[in-house]
């Protein structure tokens, strides 16, 4: 295997692909304490609230969509706070297959995959066609309770922290088949991915990123986000590059609160440490509790939670997790980004957790005597690991020498000033107890100290991150300027000024998995889903007409790629046989129009404007743009033309012979 390949393999293993975080069952991992983030604690608090939650669950989905406004209002009335409880909705198809629907959300495709869950890009059928990210638990983890716990924590953080710290919490949607946590869709990439993009341009194939970027991402982005979380009593417990996602420009959010936990409990709880009062009024309070909080008693023994690559030695040693450990992990993230790797990176990739622990303990022993190892770089660490394995495999008779050369460590590791900065930061953390607040300024200043580069450390070969332009912007522009080659129907401004969904939401998606409309272009799948949804959800008629047109026009005027869209992949559009999928879509489209009385009602073209508090609301014309030579000013005539076109297309298709079955091949 080439060195490059090997390195790549290591790299792939070091972050999200192969982490070894443990997943607690029932959303909590305490063995000897209360359950501060058990969602049920916050739901079953009083009979009244339990009833309200039941009624919220029974509410038709279209009225409880979006920000779960309904429950929030009800809960506010009761003076109690309920975080992240599930809303019962209906499901069409198997969510999150592409094209499936969960409540108001239509699934567009997969965004990412973690150890126990996958994340999917969705679009809401609601007013703003809002994009969302849906987190869904994978097979074995479906009943683990982690999703409920995550919904509780995210909802709490979203309501308690300054805007933009975490993704907007939208809701926790449950059907009879599954559940999903819906949150704001973050269009940027996560830090792990951003680093991979830089790595691809590094001439020496190192995993390093520019010092300036590593400093910014950790000291100016991640650390303040963690500080905000700690101030409301939540520890993240899985700090790593892939859990920090870019929103836009230089703004980032922390994500993934599946392992997060509150370190605060009600002052009268059995597990409260009465000697350590919680200083802030914000913390994850149990339902109907408005009293003060205390730190939770430190547990004598805690199970490992997190990722071996970045977990603090205290977590390896079974000490109870506290803010100190999040910050410790952050320092490891910094060393990893700035130098390209960590001394135990190959052990972490091989899930040798005990070896990772031993390495970390060795480095931090004797006031961090061996701290320079943290900056030696990935090439050095990978070679050192191989040497060690080779020596271990050699028989006793050998001369105890390895044939694998050790490359020169990164010059940063010889810069005493920088090594001392790290030593100082780790020394501070190692002195902290469970109840202590880290000195965030000290940590930040230690990382900032790396900006003073001496000549040996200057990284001329590493590209800096480009913050201004994102690839999706250029794609968006490309889509907007695409020429229109068939008649279009566009709802210019609707009653509430809503604009139509932008094609760009369908860009840059990696689509996997099966679909109810499998094989059709994603954008079209969404439009068919929207058209069908409108039939049953009392959407205003002019919108229903607009959505229907978005399906009917491509069916009539765009080329139907039978090879891709029909079963078997062996078809052409001119093979003379009936295209069953095409026919069924034509029929479904016509049936939708018939349900709406073929859009003959005047309300398709006019609406009542009741936005102002006018006792006699005005009837206004719906603004539509029809791009068709003869029907520019007559939408009604245009609609009739399309209806006739659909009927004719159905007749023509039905008249064709059934296609022969797909040939079976055993090769
Ligand atoms: N709100 C979001 N918007 C866009 N992408 C997101 C969002 N949340 C998460 N992602 C992407 O999905 C990836 C996995 O998400 P997350 O970490 O929550 O899942 P996980 O199963 O807990 O992963 P892991 O096991 O690696 O910790 C993230 O690294 C990020 O790239």
UniProtKB/TrEMBL annotation:
Region of interest (Disordered), residue spans: 1-36, 391-414
One Pfam family cited in the UniProt record for this chain: Pkinase
Composition skew (Polar residues), residue ranges: 392-401
SMART domains (UniProt xref): S_TKc (SM00220)
Positions bound to ATP: 135
First and last residue of the signal peptide: none
Molecular-function GO terms, alphabetical: ATP binding; protein kinase activity
Keywords from the UniProt entry: ATP-binding, Nucleotide-binding
Domain Protein kinase per the UniProt entry, residue ranges: 105-489
Keyword ATP-binding annotated: yes
Comp. bias intervals (Basic and acidic residues): 1-21
The protein's name: Casein kinase I
Species assigned in the record: Fistulifera solaris (Oleaginous diatom)
């Amino acid at each position: 295997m080439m060195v490059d390949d090997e390195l790549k393999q290591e790299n792939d293993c070091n972050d999200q692909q192969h982490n070894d975080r443990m997943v607690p069952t029932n959303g909590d991992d305490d063995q000897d304490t209360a359950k501060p983030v058990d969602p049920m604690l916050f739901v079953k608090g009083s009979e009244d609230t339990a009833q309200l939650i039941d009624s919220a669950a029974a509410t038709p989905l279209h009225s409880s969509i979006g920000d779960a406004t309904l429950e929030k209002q009800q809960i506010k009335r009761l003076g109690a706070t309920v975080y992240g409880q599930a809303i019962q909705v209906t499901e069409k198809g198997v969510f999150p297959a592409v094209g499936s629907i969960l409540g108001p959300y239509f699934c567009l495709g997969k965004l990412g995959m973690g150890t126990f869950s996958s994340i999917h890009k969705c679009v809401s059928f609601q007013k703003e066609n809002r994009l969302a990210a849906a987190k869904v638990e994978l097979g074995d983890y479906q009943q683990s309770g982690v999703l409920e716990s995550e919904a509780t924590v995210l909802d709490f953080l979203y309501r308690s922290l300054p805007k933009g710290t975490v993704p907007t919490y939208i809701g926790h949607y449950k059907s009879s088949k599954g559940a999903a946590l819906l949150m704001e869709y973050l269009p940027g990439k996560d830090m792990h991915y951003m680093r991979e993009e830089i790595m691809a341009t590094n001439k020496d194939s190192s995993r390093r990123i520019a010092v300036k970027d590593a400093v910014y991402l950790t000291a100016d982005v991640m650390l303040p986000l963690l500080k905000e979380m700690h101030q409301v009593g939540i520890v993240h417990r899985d700090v790593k590059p892939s859990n920090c996602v870019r929103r836009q420009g230089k703004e980032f959010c922390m994500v993934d609160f599946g392992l997060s936990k509150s370190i605060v409990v009600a002052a009268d709880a059995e597990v409260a440490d009465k000697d350590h009062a919680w200083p802030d009024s914000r913390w994850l309070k149990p339902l109907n509790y408005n009293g003060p909080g205390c730190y939770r008693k430190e547990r004598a023994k805690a199970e490992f939670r997190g990722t071996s690559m970045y977990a603090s030695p205290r977590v390896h040693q079974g000490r109870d997790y506290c803010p100190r450990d999040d910050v410790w992990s952050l320092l490891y993230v910094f060393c990893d980004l700035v130098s390209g790797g960590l001394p135990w990176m190959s052990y972490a990739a091989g899930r040798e957790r005990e070896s990772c622990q031993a390495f970390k303990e060795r480095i931090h022993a004797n006031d961090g005597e061996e701290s320079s190892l943290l900056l030696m770089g990935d090439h050095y660490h990978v070679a050192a690991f191989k040497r060690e394995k080779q020596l271990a495999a050699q028989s006793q008779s050998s001369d105890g020498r390895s044939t694998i050369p050790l490359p020169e460590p990164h010059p940063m590791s010889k810069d005493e000033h920088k090594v001392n900065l790290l030593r100082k930061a780790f020394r501070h953390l190692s002195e902290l107890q469970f109840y202590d607040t880290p000195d965030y300024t000290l940590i930040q200043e230690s990382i900032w100290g790396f900006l003073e580069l001496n000549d040996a450390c200057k990284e001329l070969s590493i590209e800096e991150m480009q913050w201004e332009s994102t690839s999706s912007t250029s794609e968006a522009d490309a889509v907007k300027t695409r020429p229109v080659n068939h008649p279009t129907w566009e709802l210019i401004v609707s009653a509430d000024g809503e604009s139509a969904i932008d094609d760009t939401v369908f860009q840059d998606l990696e689509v996997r998995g099966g679909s109810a409309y499998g094989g059709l272009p994603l954008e079209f799948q969404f439009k068919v889903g929207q058209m069908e949804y409108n039939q049953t959800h009392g959407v205003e008629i002019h919108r229903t007409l607009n959505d229907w047109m978005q399906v009917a026009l491509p069916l009539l005027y765009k080329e139907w790629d039978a090879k891709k869209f029909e079963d078997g992949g062996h078809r052409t559009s001119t093979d003379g046989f009936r295209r069953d999928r095409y026919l069924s879509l034509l029929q479904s489209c016509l049936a939708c129009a018939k349900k709406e009385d073929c859009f003959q009602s005047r309300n398709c073209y006019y609406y009542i404007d009741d936005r102002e508090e006018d006792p006699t609301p005005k009837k206004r014309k719906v603004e539509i743009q029809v791009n068709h030579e003869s029907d520019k000013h007559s939408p009604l005539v245009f609609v009739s033309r399309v209806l006739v076109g659909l009927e004719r297309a159905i007749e023509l298709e039905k008249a064709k012979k059934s296609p022969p079955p797909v040939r079976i091949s055993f090769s």
